[in-house]
Specification:
Length: about 140
């Protein structure tokens, strides 16, 4: 998709193996700096055949630990309004709802008309963030 191509060469790409004894990539996360002390997660994905095994949870946990250790104070992530599993996944990881960008998934932005997930039309981008507490 054109949108992914536009940002896949920026930021830091994290890739995770399915196990210690294989080079098979199980999942990836792309972390892109968007402003001072803020990173956006894009392309958070686990191989379909390996989903449901806790790989995504572990992968996200490791990425967030690395990002926090680098001094980042806030992590953003956006997902579709119809991404019920993704919305739950990020909230379980500590993300909170931030805002909704209406009509994000539109033909004007290069998305096909009438995309669906879980029987729900993809229309809006739901933005979430995770803010790390500052030391006092």
């Amino acid at each position: 998709m054109e949108q992914v191509r536009s940002y896949m060469q920026s930021g830091e790409l994290y890739a995770y193996s399915a196990s210690a004894d294989t080079d098979q990539v199980a999942g990836v996360v792309l972390a892109i700096p968007v402003e001072q002390d803020t990173v956006e997660l894009k392309a958070v994905a686990v191989d379909r055949q390996l989903q449901g095994r806790g790989i995504g949870k572990l992968m996200l946990q490791r990425v967030l630990e690395d990002i926090r250790a680098s001094g980042v104070k806030r992590v953003l992530v956006g997902t579709a309004n119809a991404g019920i599993g993704q919305l739950a996944f990020y909230q379980k990881a500590g993300f909170r709802l931030l805002r909704i960008e209406r009509d994000f998934f539109s033909p004007e932005r290069g998305y096909p008309e009438n995309m669906e997930d879980n029987g729900i039309r993809l229309r809006d981008m739901v933005w979430m963030d995770l803010v790390y507490p500052t030391a006092t």
